[in-house]
Design goal:
alpha/beta; Rossmann fold; 2 domains; seven-stranded mixed beta sheet; six-stranded parallel beta sheet; disordered N terminus; Peripla_BP_I; Leu-bd; signal; Twin-arginine translocation pathway signal protein
Length: 368
């Protein structure tokens, strides 16, 4: 399934721990500061996590090649998990035990980031690690806002963007399908509110074989979407459009194959288009081409931005780079411009959302 990936586990200035194989000790770290990334590599999540992690790796390697943070190298400690509570809690504790670790950065995927945010909330640690730029699609509890710094568009913003685009084209109605295991109540609330705002009627679709609408919004991941689309029964000559959200990797979906003809898939993404001319996007494409044999992807760009955002906060600090000082700097939520991309805040929360869309056409091309 992962034919295009030659997964590199030992690259410049990078440490990786896979729970169950070996433990990472402080003596392995390089001098300087450590930034830890907790990654969910479970079967349902790995298509998103692998690209996101590759983007983050590229950013940190590129940063260290340019002198690191304030002249200090950054140890990028990767803690791979299977997404279970036990391994996520173990990873969370491991990160906190690293004296040089100043932040959790770019933790992925959504369920893992949500779990880590809950650990932060329940922690009695005197100086908690800030959770920076996680791949988090749900709002965190109010009390978590002083330790969790999410910068990507959440589920509601993604759905609103998708339905707004459809409303602008005069689409009056669409079906909505939810993958098993999703927080259906949360997604339904977001869909219901967005539909009311955009005056679009939605109808729940329980089976792909029963789909009657030419457009359907799918809430779920890549494997679930592949299975759903594979069950579509389209009348002769009919075209179908499936609107997916940011947890769908179009490149992996195309590689999985066996997609029916006359089906186009449009995926929202919480980052600029990978073909955009923004400096941060160009930097991502250049670093990826130099370091890895990987095509660019929205999830990879998100991982790159997560690392660059974290690095920008650290780079601008005038106080010593300690855990407490980094947390205090993040809590100020200063306006930052990361190569043309700027996460907006208002009252300690995201005040707006950056969402774009790409399409996997019925002939297998990715547009956007």
């Amino acid at each position: 399934m992962w034919g295009r990936r030659d997964w590199l586990r030992s690259t410049l200035a990078i440490g990786t721990t896979t729970f169950g194989s070996r433990a990472w000790s402080q003596s392995e770290s390089t001098r300087g500061i450590t930034v830890t990334q907790v990654v969910d590599m479970s079967a349902a999540q790995q298509d998103i996590s692998r690209d996101f992690l590759t983007g983050s790796r590229a950013a940190w390697v590129d940063l260290n090649a340019r002198g690191g943070i304030q002249g200090k190298p950054v140890q990028h400690l990767v803690l791979e998990t299977d997404g279970t509570s036990a391994q996520l809690q173990s990873a969370w504790k491991t990160a906190h035990q690293q004296v040089s670790c100043v932040a959790l950065s770019g933790c992925v995927g959504n369920a893992a980031a949500q779990t880590l945010a809950r650990y932060q909330l329940a922690s009695e640690t005197a100086t908690p690690l800030p959770l920076v730029a996680p791949w988090l699609h749900q709002a965190v509890e109010e009390k978590s806002t002083d330790t969790v710094f999410d910068v990507f568009a959440d589920l509601r913003a993604q759905i609103t963007h998708a339905l707004k685009s459809l409303a602008s084209m005069g689409v009056p109605e669409l079906g909505v399908a939810y993958a098993a295991g999703q927080d259906t109540a949360l997604a339904q609330a977001a869909v219901r509110q967005a539909a009311q705002e955009q005056s679009v009627k939605v109808q729940r679709v329980h089976s792909a074989a029963q789909l009657t609408q030419p457009i359907v919004l799918f809430v779920g991941g890549t494997p679930e979407l592949h299975a759903f689309v594979g069950q579509l029964k389209l009348p002769a000559g009919r075209q179908c459009y499936v609107i997916a959200l940011a947890d769908v990797n179009l490149q992996v979906l195309a590689q999985m194959g066996n997609l029916p003809k006359r089906v186009s898939i449009i995926a929202t993404q919480a980052v600029p288009l990978v073909s955009a001319s923004l400096p941060v996007v160009r930097a991502y494409r250049e670093a990826l081409a130099k370091l890895y044999d990987e095509p660019p992807s929205p999830q990879g760009l998100a991982g790159f931005i997560a690392a660059r955002y974290t690095a920008e906060v650290l780079q601008q600090m005038t106080a010593p780079l300690t855990r407490a000082n980094v947390l205090a700097a993040l809590q100020q939520r200063k306006a930052l411009n990361v190569g043309g991309w700027a996460p907006p805040y208002q009252d300690k929360k995201r005040s707006a959302a950056f969402v774009t869309q790409s399409m996997l056409s019925s002939d297998g091309r990715i547009v956007g």
